[in-house]
Amino acid sequence: MSHDLPLVREMRALLQTRRFARTVRGYQTLDSTNTTAMRWAHEGAEEGSIVIAEHQTAGRGRQGRAWEAAAGQNLMFSVVLRPALSPSRLNVITLAASIALAETIETFTAPLTTAIKWPNDILLEGYKCCGMLLESTLAGAARPLVILGIGINVNQPDFPPALEHRATSLLLQTGRRTPRAALLSDLLGRLEQYYDGLGTKQEAAVHTAYRNRLYRLGHPITLRLTEQDHPLTGTLLGVTDTGALRLDTDQGIRIFHAGDVTLDFRSAKI
Q: Is the CA virtual torsion 263, 234, 105, 93 positive or negative?
C-alpha cells in the first residue's frame, strides 16, 4: 500500500479546494474505494477526505452491480461527507455531484456536451462515461455519514462486448487523452462549491441546472424498479426537491425514489 500515488501528487499541485482532498489515501490496487472510505470515516476521517485507486478488484455501482474499469486509465475515488442534511434529503448530494461532473467533463471534451440520466449517470454524446454510488449511515452520529463514490471512464481505449454499445470514455469520444490530475482537481473544486451550497439559497441553482441537463426530459422513458419488476413507461417530468423522479404515467403522475431508466435504442444511444 502507498498513499503517495503520482496521480495524487499531480492533483495536489493543481488543487484549489478549501477542504476536499486535503487529506488523501491513494492505492495502486484496492477492492473498493467506497468500502475503504467508509472504514476510514468510522475511524475519524474528516469531511472532504478522499480515497483513490488506480484499480479496483470489487468496485460497485448502483443496485450491487460491478463497476469495471481498466487499471491506470480512469478515475475511481470516494469522498467522505458529513452533511448538515436530514436523512430524507441526502439524495440532493447526487444532484450536486451530477452537475459538478457534467460541467467538469464538458470542460475537457468541448465542443462535445454531457447530459444526466436519472439518477446519477453522466452521458457523453449519449453514452455513459461516468457513474456514482452514494452510501450513507447514521451510526449514532449527530450528522449522517455519507460516502460518495465516483467512477469516470477517462482514457480507456475499449470496453468488453457487453458494454461497448452503452459505455464510452472521454478518449473514445474526443480522440485525445485527458490529463487525469487536471480533471480530478477541477472536479473536486466544483464538487466542493455545489456541495457547500446545499441547504442554502444556492441550492435552487443546483436543482435548475440538474433539470436543464436531464436526459429525455419531456420525452417517454422506461423505468425498471428492480430486475424482477415489469417496466413502467411514461413521460419524464423532472425530479422533486429531494431528487426523486417524476413520471407522467397512464395512472397519473407518480414519484419514484429508486429505479433504472432504460431507453429505446431506436431513439437513444443508451
A: negative
